[in-house]
Design brief:
Blueprint: H1 2-6, H2 11-25, H3 36-64
Length: about 70
């Protein structure tokens, strides 16, 4: 299984690999500049997704008879 192979080297080895590449993954040091409008649009989208998940959880509880 792919997940098994991912952790085969062990968590310490995986951590070392991550630390070696973290500078390339960090948004803070990214040469890409995000505009305030982009950030706000992403925040609105995130809020909509969060609201959708909340509603889905409520619906699931109703279906399970937990409410």
């Amino acid at each position: 299984m792919v997940r098994d192979a991912y952790f085969l080297a062990g968590s310490d080895e995986l951590r070392k690999i991550y630390l070696r590449y973290i500078q390339y993954l960090s948004v803070k040091s990214s040469p890409v500049n995000y505009s305030l409008d982009d950030v706000r649009a992403l925040q609105r989208q995130n809020n909509r997704f969060s609201d959708t998940v909340t509603e889905m959880k409520k619906e699931l509880k109703k279906l399970k008879g937990e409410v």
